[in-house]
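seq:
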Amino acid sequence: MTDLRAHSLKRRLLVSMAAGFGALLLIISILLWNYARDASNRTFDLLLAGAALSVLERVSYNTDGPTVDLPQSAMDILALAADDRIVYRVFSPKYGELTGMADLPLPDTSGPSAEPVFYNADLDEGFRFVLQGRQITSSAGREWVFVQMGQTLNARKDQQLSLFLNGMGGLAVVSLIGLGFVWLAIRASLAPLHQIADTLLARSPRDLSPIEGDPPQEISGLFQAINGFIAQLGRNRALTERFIADVAHQTRTSLSALQGQLALASDAETPEALRERLGRTSAQAERTVRLTNQLLSNAMVSHRSEEAQLEPLDLRPLVRNTLAELLRERRLRKATLSFDDAGLPDGRGRIRGDAISIREALRNLIDNAIRHGGEDNTIVIRLDGDETTITLTVSDAGPGIAPADRLRATERFTSINRATAGSGLGLAIVRSVAEGHDARLTLGTSRLGGLRASILFRRLAVMLLAGLLALIAAPRAEADELLVHAATDPAAMRPLIEAFEARNPAVDVVYHDYQTVDLYQELLDPSPETVPDLVISSAMDLQVDLVNRGLAHRLRVPQAWQPPEWASWRSELFGFTFEPAAILYDRRVLPESNLPTSHRDLSSFIRDHEDELRGKIGGYDLRRSGIGYLFATQDTIQSVQAQRLMEVLGRANIRTFNTTASMVQATREGRICMALNIISSYAMALVADDPNIGVHFLDDYNLVMTRSAFVPRGARNPVRAEAFIGFLLSPEGQAILDAETPLFSLMPPAGGLTPPALPMPRSSTNFLPIRLGPSLLTFLDRIKREDFLRNWDSTLMGDPGP
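struct:
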């Protein structure tokens, strides 16, 4: 019996310390995780509460009931969680929904309250909400108005994970230091093991005596195990030496007998005596050869068993080929040999095995049957099996082996029948083959009355059904068609599409051109048949709104190709161009030296030349042009002159157009002499060969938009669409943008700007990029949009362009 106390040191230092450290870290990690979750919730709840409060402060009452002017600051506050989608609504129990998304989930509260109520709810993904109310004075008295705002949990989870990992990082350092001390303690405690190692290294190979000494209690078990292993080596060496001695004895005896028969033959005096002596000599030579072959076979089988060279194979052809070889030998001509494989499942005997070893075992079984079977022997070889086992059986009509002798018959150099004795290795070889294949050798009485030797192999299951299921489950080939819906001039995108198709010959890009607002409306409620694979638009705010609704796939773009932070959102929406807003002007009417240099100067310039410019200034129709509405709303955020400029343009009878191209054409024809907030990249390409038309940038700021792309949910070919976006952002795609299209690349090319060139570097502070994110949703609020457009209509009163 092993003394359990012998393992006390190992248990105490390894198990106890590891379990203690593990339990302590587990408890601390649970506490830290909960703390990180509460801390992140507190942080982001403050953002929600601040945004809700800023909206409540803008709630007012008019003759139609309560209304709200959604503040830009509310969206800016929520945009601090840059990757989170947001939803909101403002409602009154009496007047219903005022603005925002209807039917957002409400908390289980007892009644209206001016205190913020925080809760979690699921829409298409998890959201954190705040509900806060305020009483306003109406003609009927005090009435409640509520603001409900929610954002997804991505930023919270990221902060929670960051706090948790930072805390666990410190604990990990402390744990490593502690484990270092444990390691030093273990080394000091197990120093006696080095003494044992030195003792073993100093011994000669033949010294297998036990190690002497008085080890510490903690390593006494190891000490005893080493001595036990040494004793086992001694027994194995004794068995090997005994086997070698038996081999030497058997070989020496056989060779001596052969030598004696040859000596007797040489002393024969008559031809008859000589013939008799030579016959005995031949028989002895045959026994000697057989013994030698059996010894070599036993050594080979033992070696291959140790090497475990097992491979899938079919026993049926292996047995057939072996029998075909044996039937050519003279000694099998007197025996009746038959083979039956009707019992094989599916007609196959698949196992994992070594063909050479199994062939040697079958040869020995058949040779054993021939030797002991007598003159009129019948030998039957059978292969049968079931779902788990394949059985190889050799039966003969000989005398067989008594049940009491069957176990002894498989030992080396053991012959049961002295009259037909051979080397005594045949069944021993078969047993070694069986053991090497994790099979089982059984001996019994055959139906013919002789010996039945069976080797039971484990069957190798061939799962045809699994292969069929894998084939069915294999992903279907992607469609060759890539459907793109875009609000971008097809001519501008054609070089990019052709380059992508050239690198992907199996892809056919189908491109449909839209106005920005029309494209947005189609995607709000698409049918499954019309969902595109890729959406591209210059209307950044409309693109953000679609993504914020959960309509986009998250994409994987290589880190080296990631756009600047302002030009991507949630790894779902990616900008790929750099396109500043500019002023288009007619050089025949407006000399460049007289042009305004800032937005303040622009208002004064138009006011001072109102009579000359009346009906000669062009701008976007904000109801039809998404990019025009985007530039106009962003101007109101960036410039205090926006309202003044709007009033001045109204007095000057601004004319409205849907596209930059239509404003360029009107300028060429002299119908207008100035167009505001045009897309400079388009304009520069259109007027490159026209010396009468110029493009002018202001010195204070020029808004920069980016054309953005996303892959909508429900796309039939999202993988190809993701590859197309990656191509747009790759150095190759960006170079094609600069060299072959009228658009400006998002990232500057390595060789500098290509014509038509910007008047200043992209990094200039005069260029003010519009950031993709939730703040763009402010002016998409229904009430705010209607108020803005109503103010635009009433202020400008401009004539629409033809």
